[in-house]
# Entry
Amino acid sequence: MSVRRVEVNLPGRAYEVRIGGGALGSVASAVRSMAGARASRVFVVVDTGVPERFVDQLSADLASQGFVACVACVTPSEEIKSIETYHRLMVEIASTGHTRVDPVIALGGGVVGDLAGFVAASYQRGVAVIQCPTTLLSMVDASVGGKTGMNLVVPDDAGGSTLLKNLVGAFHQPRLVVADMDVLASLDPRHRRAGLAECVKHGMIGAGLGDDAHAGLMDWMIEELDGIRAFDDSTIEELVGRNVALKASVVVGDEHESTDAKAGGRMLLNFGHTFGHAIETIEGVSPVVDEPGLAPLLHGEAVGLGMVAACCAAVELGMCDRSIGDELVSMLEAIGLPVRVDGLPPGCEILDRMMRDKKMAGGSLRVILPVGWGKCAIVEGADEGAIVAGIDSIRR
Ligand SMILES: NC(=O)c1ccc[n+]([C@@H]2O[C@H](COP(=O)([O-])OP(=O)(O)OC[C@H]3O[C@@H](n4cnc5c(N)ncnc54)[C@H](O)[C@@H]3O)[C@@H](O)[C@H]2O)c1
# Structure
């Protein structure tokens, strides 16, 4: 088993991301050495999409290290990433007799990672969490950096309700991240493509980070596009390693997404997200590809569409050349990601939803817009007409 390691060098909270086939086999012994002899239980939050053999193996490994493993299952969706599910998990962990020295393991995609991470952040004011991502998206993005949380449904002005993404949460860094490439074999093609959208996002900010290692990410992805599209094992492992390294360096530079971070900091990782979050959870919005019944959008699809809208808004504002958006669209299309959607409500409605996103700064809308190929900037109080033009550009 060859496992590559990427360090997240946060002062006082450094941790390792292990990437490679079979890496899950190292989790139980790592948990024992980090939790110490007094730990006796592990609360494992498992994504029901993960093939059973990985769950069974992890439980057996934990038992052989002397742990009682209590497994709680979650079937992921944005609706289930809720306070109700959080409450259920809190009741389950409390009823197992879990103590402050006992860790939590998240084995699943981004929904499970965010929920289990928030349970760990808040149970008895914080216990250790080990993130074991099982989707491409959670490997390259969600499991690294310590963001945890859930969605909240709030009443809207029209007498209905709106699901606001990730509105409740906390920063809680994992003690270890283990990305076992073998688990990706069962991930369906649509979720594979959704994960690639976050890799493209990293490529779109890589050149602005002031580090040659990340500046070349997009060019490398273009060179390796055939292997990426074919989901070739070694190419995907390299892709995960490069993306995790980029994300780790951004997180180390700006752990808590401060508004005055040098050169944009962690906020740059939100490229595509303010637009994306606003359209992700709208019922009936479906990607325009040759398959019926795909509504609602997946998170990665919404991020890809959000990046397209952001490019168009940036062109409207005179911030970048139209060719940047064209190249982005070619890249997303080559991967098989949607660049237009059906069923989008009027632009002003989407704008309203964007205004309620937590990326608002005071009373003004904050968006991340491209200023060149691989470079983005934070724009406060962007002109609403340009934002609506961006939204309209992804409407079929
Ligand atoms: N915390 C962060 O920094 C961060 C960053 C990006 C995204 N996110 C969040 O992550 C979520 C999206 O994550 P996601 O794309 O992983 O979606 P997801 O968690 O909904 O998982 C997608 C699907 O894949 C299934 N699945 C998981 N592992 C599998 C496997 N090995 N084989 C087969 N099926 C498997 C799941 O059951 C689910 O049906 C969103 O809620 C988003 O807000 C968080």
Notes: Residues 40 and 67 are 5 Å apart (CA to CA). The chain has a mean pLDDT of 94. The pocket of nicotinamide-adenine-dinucleotide is lined by residues 47-50, 76, 78, 81, 108-112, 114, 134-135, 137-138, 141-142, 145, 147, 165-166, 183, 186-187, 191, 194, 299-300 (CB under 6 Å). The domain at 4-186 is CATH 3.40.50.1970 (Rossmann fold).
